[in-house]
Design goal:
Blueprint (H helix, E strand, L loop, with lengths): L6 H10 L2 H14 L1 H11 L9 H5 L4 H11 L2 H11 L3 H4 L5 H11 L3 H8 L6 H5 L2 H13 L2 H11 L6 H6 L9 H6 L4 H11 L2 H12 L2 H6 L1 H12 L3 H11 L3 H4 L3 H13 L5 H24 L7 H13 L24 E2 L5 E3 L2 E5 L5 H13 L3 E5 L6 E5 L8 H4 L2
Antiparallel strand pairs: 1-2, 2-3, 3-5, 4-5
Organism: Diacronema lutheri (Unicellular marine alga)
GO molecular function, one term: mRNA binding
Keywords: Repeat
Length: about 425
């Protein structure tokens, strides 16, 4: 029979072996030895103050790996016994850097709806508070994923609730009610993950409430990195009327938003849902195309080219992008790579670079193989289209916005 597995043995191992070795040896033993696993589960599935306890182990750097292993390797009856011990401490474990991983595994592997409900119940009263923490947000995210429809509705209701406390509501009875916790979470790094999950999984009625609440701060959300992801998710799951409301809130600020990566991300989401929208949408996405293309090409040109002529090529590129635009501007243009001059709708710049509204074309000789790969990757990340056209000396790399028309051969001839 296997030697007793106890907290004392764990502490001894931990004192003499690195954590990775402890995890490997114990996990292998639990996986290969059913008797050892049953013995370990039997010891852990005892409520405090019994020693050892699953709660104490779950909050420990090494012990948490053992509890997770027991949850994954045990039979349903053993798993249910472990969960019955962990459930009362779910609120505390959700805040723990180690316990949160155990709790997420328990939510995923709970053998019955009753076991999962026992884990979720302690999270409900402090749901919004947990979402504002690193580990709690991931626990609530997991709970939303695996909860029943009724439990998910209860979790979302907490995030859409009004004043956080009765005292706060009484302090300013005549003032406008504070925004629901979901709005505050949407602008936070970890809370935004929960906000996105709410938009994906909530019922139609609750999703509509979430959309209305988030719309109140649409511009601010679009300007922040976490919030821009929430805006993108909101647009993906919006009804036609809701999508038009988002566009009405964001597109008047398109020029401002196009100056940041977060804003570009939000505007790309607008463009995705407004492919058949009116002229106002087309103008706004045109602003986006210019800003996104110019930012991408500046990054590309700034690092393009290796070898003896790489420095000269980069200098010419920087001069082309940052100079007064005398060579790049068309008739009546204002300078820079994105002027709209020229009879063919494009402007010819130094080194044969052509540009027009929402597109730019580089001669292949201006970019080496690595720079061309970077161009394609940058275009993909920004939601742009990149393609190589022409042959030989007339070969060009074109990067354009998705809504911009493909250029005719006359536009890309050297």
């Amino acid at each position: 029979m296997a030697a007793p597995l106890s907290r004392g043995v764990l502490q001894a191992l931990r004192a003499h072996l690195p954590a990775s070795a402890v995890r490997e040896s114990w996990l292998r033993r639990l996986r290969e030895d059913d008797a050892a696993r049953r013995q370990m589960v039997g010891r852990l599935a005892r409520a405090p103050p019994a020693d050892p306890s699953a709660i104490a182990f779950a909050s420990d750097a090494v012990g948490s790996h053992l509890v997770q292993a027991c949850l994954r390797l045990s039979v349903p009856a053993e798993r249910a016994a472990l969960i019955s011990v962990l459930a009362p401490a779910a609120g505390t474990l959700a805040r723990s850097s180690h316990g949160s991983f155990v709790l997420r595994a328990a939510l995923e592997l709970a053998p019955s709806a009753a076991d999962r409900s026992a884990l979720i119940a302690p999270l409900l009263p402090r749901c919004a508070e947990l979402c504002a923490t690193v580990h709690g947000a991931h626990v609530v995210h997991e709970a939303l994923e695996h909860a029943s429809a009724r439990e998910r509705e209860a979790l979302v209701a907490r995030l859409l609730a009004g004043p956080p406390t009765a005292a706060a509501a009484a302090a300013a009875p005549a003032a406008a009610p504070p925004p629901p916790p979901l709005v505050r979470l949407a602008a936070q790094t970890h809370g935004s993950l929960v906000a996105q999950r709410v938009l994906e999984l909530a019922s139609d009625a609750q999703r509509a409430l979430a959309q209305r609440a988030l719309l109140e701060t649409a511009r601010e959300l679009a300007q922040s990195t976490p919030g821009s992801f929430v805006v993108s998710t909101a647009l993906q799951h919006a009804s036609a009327a809701e999508a038009q409301s988002w566009l009405a809130r964001l597109l008047p600020h398109a020029a401002e938003l196009a100056g940041s990566k977060a804003g570009v991300r939000a505007l790309h989401a607008c463009a995705e849902v407004s492919a058949h929208a009116d002229e106002q949408v087309a103008r706004a996405t045109g602003l986006l195309a210019g800003a996104a293309l110019e930012a991408a090409m500046r990054a590309l040109i700034g690092g393009a080219g290796d070898g003896a002529d790489g420095g000269a090529r980069r200098a010419r590129a920087r001069e082309r992008c940052d100079g007064d635009g005398a060579d790049a501007a068309g008739d009546g243009g204002s300078g820079g790579v994105f002027d709209d001059g020229g009879e063919d709708g494009g402007a010819r710049g130094a080194d044969g670079v052509l540009s027009g509204p929402g597109w730019i074309a580089f001669p292949a000789r201006a970019l080496d193989a690595r720079a061309r790969r970077r161009a394609h990757e940058l275009a993909r990340q920004l939601g742009l289209v990149s393609q190589s056209v022409g042959e030989g000396a007339e070969r060009r790399l074109i990067v354009r916005a998705r809504h911009a028309q493909s250029q005719s051969p006359s536009c890309i001839q050297t």
